[in-house]
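Researcher: Next sequence.
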Amino acid sequence: MRRLQVIADCCTSCRSCEVACSLVHSGSCWPKEARLWIEPKENATAFTPRICRRCRRPRCAAVCPSGALVPLPEGGAKVDPEKCTGCGACVKACPFGYLRLSPITNVPLICDLCLDRPEGPACAETCGEKAVVVKET
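Model: Next structure:
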């Protein structure tokens, strides 16, 4: 199973991962549409990329009242934007706090590992510091 791994000590908060993700998924350079984000640590000189963990039994999908989130056999969930009501139950259910709704569509922004890209996840590809890497588990 493929997952993204975060090596927080390597993150410089350049935000290239956010930009690449938003470009791939929304076609615009707007990090608020990215499926991951950079969070400053307490001292604001260290940073941590926040990425969906692609849970084996995703709670976000389990609580979705409209059936818009479907668990995937390899982990994580797929969102059907046509079914999503934007209720936010999935966001509240994520035990890691990594899920958020799009400010434009009100649909959950869930990592799909850029499965449509032969190059793999855009965030890992563009991270020059290798703070976000693809890991096979």
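Model: The domain at 55-97 is CATH 3.30.70.20 (Alpha-Beta Plaits). The CA atoms of residues 54 and 76 lie 4 Å apart.
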